[in-house]
């Protein structure tokens, strides 16, 4: 009983550490991938990061099972964990498609995509900061979410320029083009980062006693949407 | 010989009633719900607390029920049909409420049966503030006090939390603190409710044990405590498991506030010696905390509960009277 009462605090802190560690991996991964793609030399850091990510994921699942306290909090943590995982999964996908199609792409396109990788790593760092700040300061975390959204949408806008249009400016979707594969993979990874930010906002809405305005705004929006639909 | 057989029958009935009350005891559900205790620990802890609370705290409430409301328990001629009618009325009222899925009070059912039989047998009910008057006033104001205390404590807790909790880490730490406080409150509530509820099962048979030594006189309290504890261990764990897992909306701070408010009100009533409805106090505390958190109240359900609160003593009284006239000829 006492272990149950007093042990939770330790487990919660360990879950916190592991979640923050896990959220740092996409940033490191994109940095390493940028180096690999730039130099075209196999980067062992990426393999190490994949092993590290797998280990942290396993430990987190074990800890979350052990430290079941408040159902609502645990559900939210698990969903956050799943979203961070999705970012990692898509980043691995990017590595595969980049390496597979490196020979099929024109040099400027490839270089453009590599430079986008650098931008994505910045977004990854912001995602890490969002999660770190969630545990330290809700307000700072919300500020970081805004920054993350801006950076992610800017990169996504940039992806459209070579994703859907040909040299003459005629827009056609060709799923055979390697840059489409890579663009889509990058897009998915960025969307998952945005989803992590959304989850953080949701957690703050749910558990903060000082951010009721977030709920009010959403309610107002939902009500106005309902009214429009009814009309 | 007949009186010994009847005594054994009545003791068994009261033991069963205490068992049933224990089986439906939801006091520890909140602490299981926020995962601060496992079902097994909660059940064992609840059983020990029921035994202690029943044995040490229930005497004054029992005296009020037996002596202050009506002199009906002094009737030695019709003693057995009266006791059986009271038990039957309580059992039917509780079953009826369970059919409708409403939380009703066994205390109200017991008092209703006593009043109904007193009217039927021509005993004068003490409506002054030394008897039924204080019981009625307590019934009326205890949910209001429970609601108000819960509302105010919740407001205070939220103001404190808004000032002190600025991050998720602090939120988790606050939850841990409230988890420990909740456990303390639940133990207190358990003691208070055992002291109150046990009388609903054993108060009528206590006069049958008068005249002996200290332990003989306190035997009904021990029987009630054992019944309450056994009910919790054998069947009550299911209630705790169901409620504990269903109460997902409950956070440690809201559970602490509702349990704490209910504990304050019920404990004060037990100390003063007034039988109070623990269920109603807990329901009103839930509502107080809910309103404080700006959560919408289901007014339809509230209305239904209020109707049942009013109807329970009346229905129980009518059943007791009907049962009494049906079995009177057997004795």
What does it look like?
Helix content of chain A is 84%, strand content 0%. Chain A has 231 residues and is mostly helical. Chain A has one domain (2-230): Methane Monooxygenase Hydroxylase, Chain G, domain 1 (Up-down Bundle), CATH 1.20.58.220. Chain A is globular. The mean pLDDT of chain A is 83. Chain B has 331 residues and is mainly α. Helices cover 78% and strands 0% of the residues of chain B. Chain B has helices spanning 2-23, 29-33, 39-57, 59-68, 79-100, 106-121, 132-164, 168-202, 214-217, 219-246, 252-272, 278-292, 299-327. In chain B, helix 5 (79-100) runs antiparallel to helix 13 (299-327) and helix 6 (106-121) crosses helix 13 (299-327). Chain B is globular, with a radius of gyration of 20 Å. Classes of the chains: A mainly alpha (231), B mainly alpha (331). The A-B interface holds A 1, 4-5, 8-9, 12-13, 16, 68-73, 134-139, 203, 207-210 and B 34-38, 41, 158, 161-162, 165-169, 171-173, 175-176, 179-180, 183, 248-249, 251-252.
Question: Characteristics of this structure?
Answer:
heterodimer; A: 231 residues; mainly alpha; Methane Monooxygenase Hydroxylase, Chain G, domain 1; 7 helices; B: 331 residues; 13 helices; 78% helix
Q: How do you describe this structure in short?
A:
By secondary structure, chain A is mainly α.
Question: Which CATH class of chain A?
Answer: Mainly Alpha
Radius of gyration of chain B: 20 Å
Shape of chain B: globular
Helical content band of chain B: over 70%
Most extensive interface between two protein chains, with residue counts: A-B, 25 and 26 residues
**Cα distance spanning the termini of chain A:** 57 Å
CATH architecture term of chain A: Up-down Bundle
Q: CATH homologous superfamily of chain A - what is it?
A: Phosphate transport system protein phou homolog 2, domain 2
Element order, helices and strands of chain A?
HHHHHHH
Mean pLDDT of chain B: 81
Instruction: Enumerate how many helices of chain B there are, as a single number.
Output: 13
User: What is the helix content of chain A?
Assistant: over 70%
Mean pLDDT of chain A: 83
Output the radius of gyration of chain A: 20 Å
Order of helices and strands of chain B: HHHHHHHHHHHHH
Q: Structural class of the helices, strands and pairings of chain B?
A: mainly alpha
């Amino acid at each position: 009983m006492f272990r149950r009462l007093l042990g939770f605090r330790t487990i919660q802190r360990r879950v916190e550490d592991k979640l923050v560690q896990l959220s740092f991996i996409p940033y490191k991964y994109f940095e390493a991938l940028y180096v690999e793609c730039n130099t075209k030399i196999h980067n062992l850091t990426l393999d190490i990061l994949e092993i590290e990510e797998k280990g942290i994921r396993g430990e987190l699942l074990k800890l979350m099972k052990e430290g079941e306290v408040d159902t609502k909090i645990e559900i939210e943590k698990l969903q956050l964990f799943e979203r961070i995982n999705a970012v990692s999964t898509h980043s691995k996908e990017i590595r595969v498609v980049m390496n597979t199609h490196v020979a099929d792409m024109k040099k400027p396109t490839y270089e453009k995509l590599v430079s986008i990788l650098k931008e994505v790593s910045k977004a990854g760092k912001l995602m890490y900061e969002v999660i770190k700040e969630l545990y330290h300061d809700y307000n700072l975390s919300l500020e970081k979410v805004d920054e993350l959204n801006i950076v992610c949408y800017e990169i996504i806008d940039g992806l459209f320029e070579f994703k859907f249009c040909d040299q003459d400016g005629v827009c056609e979707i060709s799923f055979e083009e390697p840059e489409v594969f890579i663009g889509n993979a990058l897009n998915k990874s960025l969307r998952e980062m945005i989803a992590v930010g959304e989850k953080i906002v949701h957690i703050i809405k749910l558990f903060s006693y000082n951010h009721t305005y977030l709920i009010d705004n959403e309610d107002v929006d939902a009500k106005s949407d309902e009214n429009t639909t009814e009309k | 010989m007949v009186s010994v057989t009847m005594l054994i029958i009545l003791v068994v009935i009261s033991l069963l009633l205490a068992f049933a009350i224990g089986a439906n005891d939801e006091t520890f559900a909140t602490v299981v719900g926020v995962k601060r205790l496992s079902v097994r620990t909660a059940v064992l802890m609840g059983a020990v607390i029921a035994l202690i609370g029943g044995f040490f705290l229930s005497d004054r409430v029992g005296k009020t029920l037996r002596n202050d409301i009506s002199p009906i328990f002094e009737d030695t001629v019709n003693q057995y049909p009266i006791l059986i009618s009271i038990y039957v009325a309580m059992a039917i009222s509780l079953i009826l409420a369970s059919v409708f899925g409403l939380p009703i009070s066994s205390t109200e059912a017991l008092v209703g049966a006593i009043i109904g039989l007193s009217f039927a047998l021509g005993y004068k009910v003490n409506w002054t503030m030394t008897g039924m008057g204080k019981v009625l006033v307590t019934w009326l104001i205890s949910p209001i006090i429970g609601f108000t205390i819960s509302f105010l404590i919740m407001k205070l807790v939220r103001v404190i939390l808004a000032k002190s909790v600025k991050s998720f880490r602090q939120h988790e730490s606050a939850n841990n603190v409230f988890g420990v406080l909740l456990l303390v409150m639940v133990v207190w509530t358990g003691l208070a409710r055992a002291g109150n509820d046990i009388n609903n099962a054993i108060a009528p048979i206590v006069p049958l044990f008068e005249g002996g030594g200290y332990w003989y006189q306190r035997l009904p309290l021990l029987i009630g405590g054992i019944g309450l504890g056994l009910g919790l261990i054998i069947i009550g764990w299911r209630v705790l498991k169901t409620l504990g897992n269903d109460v997902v909306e409950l956070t440690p701070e809201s559970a602490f506030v509702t349990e704490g408010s209910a504990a304050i009100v019920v404990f004060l009533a037990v100390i003063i010696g007034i039988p109070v409805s623990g269920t109603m106090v807990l329901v009103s505390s839930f509502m107080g905390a809910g309103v404080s958190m700006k959560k919408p109240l289901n007014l339809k359900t509230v209305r239904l509960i209020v109707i049942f609160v009013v109807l329970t003593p009346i229905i129980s009284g009518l059943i007791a009277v009907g049962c009494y006239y049906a079995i009177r000829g057997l004795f």
